[in-house]
Structure formats: C-alpha cells, structure tokens
Amino acid sequence: MVVVGALFALAILMELPFVNGPSYWQWPWRTLPFGRALTFFAAPLVLYGYLISRWTRGGEALAPNEARRIVGGLVLCCMLAQIASLYVDERTWTQIERIVKSRAITSYYTDARRIGELGEWLPKFATVRLEHHSATHPPGPVLYYYAWIQLAGRVWAPLMGGATVGVLASFGVAVSYLFAGLWTRSPSARLGTCFLYALMPGLIVFFPELDQVYPIGAMLLIWFWVRSFEERSLAIALGLTLFACSFFAYNFLTVGAAMVLFALATIRLEGWSRDLGRRIATAAAIALAVALACHVVLWLTTSFHAIDSLRDALATQDRFAAKLARPYWSCVFWDLYDFLLANGLLTLPLVTLLLLQRPEPRVRALTAAALLAILVVDFTGLLRCEAARVWLFLQPLILVPAGLALARFAAPERAFILALQALILIALRCKMAFIGG
C-alpha cells in the first residue's frame, strides 16, 4: 500500500510517460510551486490531521455523535482544500470566473447569458444553439447559472455560482457517511470513506465544475433505492431525486446499472421471496411514476420536452465521439485508469485488500455490486474518455469499500495512508493541468 502510493506520487513528480494518460487523451504536464502548495494546503491538512487523531482516539467504539462532529470537520476541510487549490495558482479567485465564463471549459454560463425570455427558451432547448458542454446535457446546468444571473447580476454571478458549486460538493463528505451506512452501521468504519472523500483529488482539482456535485446525486439515488425496499415512502424521495438528477446530467442514467446490481445483492443477502420481489417492484414503480409525473408537469407548464432533449444530446455526443476517434479497447483500460487517478489510485489496493480479507457477507455483496457497476460503465463504452471528471459521480462506489479497508488498519498505518493521499493530491495539483491550464 505504502509502496504503491509513494511510487505513484514519485511518478507524477518525475512526469513519467503515460502517468498523465494515453497519447490520445492526456492531462498536460505543468509545474506549479510545490512549496507554495504546501503553504496554502497547511490549514486544511492541520485540520485533517486533528480529525484523524479524534477518529483514532474513539477507536471501534466511536460514538455516533462524535462521528458526526468529525464528518462536519471533514466537510470544512474539503472546502478549505478547494480554496487552497485555488491559491496554488497565482490567479487565485479569478480562476473561478475564468473557468465559469469559458466557452471551452463549461459553457453553461455562456449559454445562460444568451437566454432572453426563459418561457421561450426552455421549450426550444432541443433545437436552440448551445455550446459544447451544454449541448450534451439537460437544461439544468444552464438554468443554474441563469438563476445566479437573476439573483446576483452578471458581474457577481460567475463567482457566486462557481463558489457555491464548491460548497455544495463539500457536503458530499456528509452524504458519503450516510451512503456507507448501506455497508455497515459502525460509525468508525464509515468515517474511512469520509476521510478519503474529503481529499479526493478529482473533487479538488476540478473546482468549480458541476461534476463535483454529481456524486451526491448518485449516492442518494442508490441509498433511497435500497432503503425503499423496507420503507416504501422513500421511493417517493427516490423519484424526486431521479427527476432532479435527470434534469442536470444524463450520466445519471447509467446509475441504473448500479441500482439493478444492488437489488440483486439484496436478493442474494436476504434470499429470494415473493414478498421481496414485490417490495422491489413496488419501489421501482413508485419512483418511476413520481419522476415521470414531474417531467409531465414540467412539460405541461413550460413545454420543455425531455425526450427530444435527450435524443438531441445523444446525437450531439455521437458526433463529438466520431471527431475524437476514441478507440474502444484503449478506452476500456485508460478510462478505468483515469477514474482511479481522480481518487488518488490508493483505492485499488485498499479494495483488493478488503476482498482478500473475506469480509462479512453484506460488505462483500455490496462491494461486488458497486465494482461491477463501474465495470459495466467501462465496458459498455457509454462514457468514454475524460473519466477523471465525467465519472466523478461513480467515485462513491469505490470510495466506500476503500474506506472500510482503511478503517481496519491500525492508527499509525491509517494516518500514513491518508498522508500519502494528501501528497498525491498536492502532486496532481502542481504537476497536471486538469481544468483550463
């Protein structure tokens, strides 16, 4: 574990070939001052170390209230790490505005500025002229920045909207604690996921991209889905979450594979029965009915046609894919590597170690479902290339089992692994240009 992390950090610092991706898709090498990075990351890292010590003192019998306080501290730590990441580059806060306003990097704000009358724009969304990223998404991201323009004006909207993305993304740490509860009820074990999430490189280096927030949507979809087998009312929350997610990114549709696999894992754990089958079918029917009803209401009130929007986005994506010429078999390997790059690569040996230890059946079954869901997305080729950003919503599926493995280490080893995670984050921030140079 230590050797893997140390060698990977060294490979980044030495700019070894292919560490930054294959020849057809690379994150460009660059050099930002490592000393400056350590200076600005000092505050979140000191807080991180303090929270590790509190986690260690609590041991296996850590009280739930203490765990929640540590989670709150990690949410703050994640926010501070994103701010520190800005200051590594001398452009600091101006980066937020530069990225948000860029037509090439996001384009959502650019298209939001073009909206005249919202009542005329939304019904024509499938045919209106949109920039690169907006054209492959539902209207949610554009409307997010349109709302900020209305609230704060065009001068402040880019900064306020971009900063809010980072704040919202940080609360993914708290949601990951909830999500890990599907695997285990142990507060101490669930914190392992939160510590990895708080300094997940992909979450920090892509600030301020809406993709940072999408893991929250994926976690809620799966959590509501599994819990709705026992609490039928949660299927309504699942339907509302599905509607909201499908209004912001079509990537969420691939979470359906994870939901099917988690249902199969539940059947494996509980044993098949007519009652369980009825509960799963009922939860699915309620959730789909609620999501569909929301889209129908939206269509009746605004004339926005979700199906036309999806059809146009898929056609646009096909045209982009043809131009980029992404080779399928290379992407099968390199997309998975890029995905692991975004979490610091330590998750792979951690999850391998967890499975070799033959954990309890529930942990084993849900981990298998989570990993298979990632492989389904990989081998179907639905989301080829730029996986470090585009696949951020899938990160919780590997962070939870990795966090459970981390929690099983003794205190010194656990702290050392997390220190390596921080080192990899800083090395990636200093040596690779993940967003707009």
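That was protein one. Protein two is written in the same sequence-then-structure order:
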Amino acid sequence: MPAPLYQVDAFTEEPFKGNPAGVCLLENPQKVSWMQNVAQEMNLSETAFLWPEGDDFGIRWFTPAVEVDLCGHATLATTHVLIERGTLGPGRTMRLHSNSGLLVVGRRGDFIEMDFPAKPPKAAQAPPRLAEALGMEPTYTGENGSDFLVLFEREQDVRDLKPDMELLKTLGTRGVCVTARASASGFDFVSRFFAPNVGIPEDPVTGSAHCCLGPFWMDRLGKREFVAYQASLRGGVVHVRVEDGRVVLGGKAVTIFKGEILV
C-alpha cells in the first residue's frame, strides 16, 4: 500500500537551508532492509520512519548507509509533518518510542520542541591523527560514547576547517563535532559535525549533537538556554535548553515536497 513520503528542511524557516530529512509515514513497522533501501533512495543524511503504537508512535532513523539510534533534525521534520497533517495540534505533545528511549515532541509558540536525553562529554585524550585530520590543534577533546567533541579557540577556526575525510574515517567513531564560542551577535556557540563513517561527510545541522553541546556549554557559560548556529554550507539554528538529564531542542522546519512511495 502506498505510504506518504516527505522531504523537509529542518532547523530553518527558509527553504533550501537547514538540514533536509526524509519522513515516511507507515501503518506498521517495516523490515530493516526495506527502510534502509528507502533511505538510500532518498539519499539524504537521514530518513525517519514513523508508525502508530497505540496512542503513541514508534520511530527509527536511517542514513543511506546505516541505522542510527537518535536523529534530531529528522525528528523535528517528522513533528513538523504531524503538525501540518493536523495530527499534533497546538498545546499538545506526542510520545515517540525509539532505540534511544522515549522522546516527547510538541509545540512551544512558533517552535517545535523535542525532549531528548542529555549526552554530556567526558574529557578524553585526542585519538592519534585527530589534529592532522582536522588540520588544526584543538584546545579540548572529549567523547560521549558516540562522538568526539572538539573545542577550538575561535568561531572562525570552526568555519575555516577543511577536514581530511578519509583520515577521519580511521578514528573509529560515529562522528566528530567541532565547536567554539560564537563571536556573531545573537548566538552563544557554533559547531560543525563530520560523520564520514556513516556516509555523511558533513551534516548540515545535527540536532542530536546538541545533546552533547548543551551540557558542555552549560558548564562553560554558566547558563542553561542557548541559541546555537551550525556553520555548515546550508547552516541552521538550534535552540537548546538543558534540564535535569535531558536536553530540549527547538527549531522550525519547511516542507519541500511530499508524495507517496509505491513499493
């Protein structure tokens, strides 16, 4: 039976900015091989698959190469689709069951908000050749079990990076998130995210990375709410609020097209 399929630009209110995600609405969960094939066909950094589970929903996310346990921008895109379809009205929340546990999404004013688990980093020795792969020596390196977090002195350092993707693949991690305090007015910190090991050389906007970035910058800036900018070519804005053991991510989204998958 045909399934609705969307492409949505997340963490932006401007078309062709932010991070594009696929959203596939299912009546029932499908085989992993089928979902992986659809994600490969969409050829976006992530495609989300959503289906009803009682009054809640189940959700899974796939890159063109692998399944991932948590994806912020594709969850925001999915929530945006539910709002557009009238499934999620003003003042309501929706519970999503995922491989990373229960996620709660909803609307707060003009923003979509997502309640995610916090994943704070721990200081760690930089892996061999990390500085060489990034082309610059960091001032701090941490890890949170999924990714390396790398701090640089200046925002311009983050913007100027031209990583060696083949060398990054040898580091044995899902991704490398680089960050610095923002120098531009209106933002608290900037970041970029590289994940060539899962088929994403540079992710345009990485919601899940802010589950690490939020606690990291809370300790350094002494506050719990931030406006962050991911300084990829497309760019995107992420609102971050750190709570006890959780990180609430906020953003906007724009539907680019919708159709049906027939196979």
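The helical segments are 32-42, 72-84, 130-134, 155-160, 165-168, 210-221. Keep this in mind for the problem set.
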